Amino acid sequence: MESNMNKSLALKRLLQSSEVSYAMEAHNGVSAKIVEEAGFPLVWASGLTISTSLGHRDCNEISWTNFCDQIEYMVDTTSTPILIDGDTGFGNFNNVRQLIIKLCKYNVAGVCIEDKTFPKTNSLLSYNQNLAPIEEFCGKIKAAKDTQSNSHFCVIARTEAFISGDGLREALDRAYAYKDAGADAILVHSKKNTIEEIELFCDHWDHSIPLVIVPTNYSSTPPDQYKKLGISLVIWANHLLRASIVAMRKIAKKIAKEKLIQIPNNDLVSIEDVFDLTNEKELRSAEKKYLAYDCLTS
Ligand code: SPV
Ligand code: MG
Asked: How far, in Å, from the CA of 120 to the mean position of ligand 2?
């Protein structure tokens, strides 16, 4: 329970800090571990990359419990706070409540829910970007805040008003309504190739609660720009999955062609490194402590 409180509190502090924080995507236990190793203060459990890593599309094709199973593996392998991509909450306010109960049990730091209709379509696609009515989404935020069993658990409300083409006025109206409904922060999403929509939003928003962005399509924005705009958290939402696909394709093609393994050391981690990622050494020392002497093998 104590670590649950601390992880949510850590996320709350990141959000409320005057410094910009960065989160990196993970989609399973080992990628979460790698995010932690790299020193990120926060893991983003991405709906897109979790679905893709399971061979599915990012449109609620996998069930919410399949999704939560992946979260459980990430929690088991890391101590870094995890922010969950809760999509639209997997249904109505009641599905949101079930999700929050589960996530609080799993020790995650917070959830981000988005104001589209269920089933959702990934925001970077050009079709089916339909917004839910504001009142309905406010009900989901309230339901989430009323359900959380950890007082510091963060509920981030994500508006897709730019993604749906509804523009600045709609984005602002929604952000203020979500703040009033109890959201701890606002994620404003844009799929433009420049930061222009976010800049516009920041110029008109009163910054009364923290702002989060996902700059997948405007990722070359200089970092000092984020600070100038008053952004609290930047999420690199899909980069470990994309990097791993490059690496896997390259190695698979090479081995399929050459029929023997002649791969430079820096293109494959050692088997020792694989064992280290799951802390094999800990098991060995636990065996020495707990296994009967004659069960131990050298
Ligand atoms: C995700 O990582 O699943 C996100 C960000 O929600 S985006 O893919 O841009 O919708
Ligand atoms: Mg998503």
From this structure: 9
Cα separation, 33 vs 75, whole angstroms: 10
How do residues 243-287 score in pLDDT, each as one tens digit?
Answer: 999 999 999 999 999 988 877 778 899 999 999 999 999 999 999
* Cα 59 to ligand 2 centre (Å): 9
Q: How far apart are CA 47 and CA 27, in angstroms?
A: 8
Strand boundaries in 27-86, DSSP class E:
42-45, 82-85
Neighbours of 203 (CB within 10 A): 10
Q: What is the pTM of this model?
A: 0.96
Testing ligand 1's pocket by substitution, the residue of 50, 162, 216, 236 carrying the most ligand atoms inside 8 A of its CB is 216
Q: Report the pLDDT value the prediction gives residue 2, as an integer from 0 to 100.
A: 46
Residues with CB under 6 A from ligand 1: 46-48, 58, 85, 122-124, 214, 216, 237-238
Q: Are 34 and 26 within 8 A, CB to CB?
A: yes
Is 58 labeled as catalytic in the residue annotation?
yes
User: How many angstroms separate the CA atoms of 37 and 34, rounded?
Assistant: 5
pLDDT in tens, 13-35: 999 999 999 999 999 999 999 99
